[in-house]
Amino acid sequence: MKIFLDTGSIEEIRQGVDMGLVDGxxxxxxxxxxxxxxxxxxxxxxxxxxxxxxxSIEVVAVDYExxxxxxxxxxxxxxxxxxxxxMTVDGLKAIRDLKQRKIPVNCTLxxxxxxxxxxxxxxxxxxxxxxxxxxxxxxxxxFLVEQIRSIFDNYDFQCNILVASVRNxxxxxxxxxxxxxxxxxxxxxxxKLTEHPKTAEGLNRFLEDWKKVSPEGKFLL
Length: 221
Ligand code: E4P
Hints:
The chain is of the alpha/beta class and about 220 residues long. It has helices spanning about 10-20, 30-35, 40-50, 65-75, 90-100, 115-120, 130-135, 140-155, 170-180, 185-190, 195-215; strands spanning about 1-5, 25, 55-60, 80-85, 105-110, 125-130, 160-165, 180-185. The protein has one domain: TIM Barrel.
């Protein structure tokens, strides 16, 4: 399963890339609004350069014609730009059009299996089910991912399931077990994936015991 970072922060992207854990990035207008002191074009251009893979950038138009205009502008910024289009009727028209122009689309704000199927039929490269926001209203976000996986496998849709609105490591484990193609994670969830209390406890014990071997702290040097 690929791991994307869900962020507008160039610092988080650089740290994640240094860890060797970032296959791509997703952004949205809310994440971009948190970046201060830089205009939108500069922020997006920096992210595209720093990311060793696809970067989803969202249109803010809601009508088909303007979605296409914004999509073409987004795509001018980099070969790794993926256009994020919301799941609406105009969005589906835009997805079909962009597919013909060979511009990859991530269809966002997916909350039902049938929305995912329509996006895949229209030609989206990615669908983004928002699991955390479903959990927030007492639904089961990961069950939606299972449903989409079954539908895409039944009909051999070549569309990536990108698990979004991830809130914790359990979402990531379940995404991998279901066979989702990508999970996009906030930076704090990415770092939590490396942690376990028994790992920290074990490391502390080894370091304490090493002091018995070498009280002066020397190690083969
Ligand atoms: C996905 O691409 C979205 O940017 C994101 O995952 C939304 O997550 P949220 O529900 O935490 O805002």
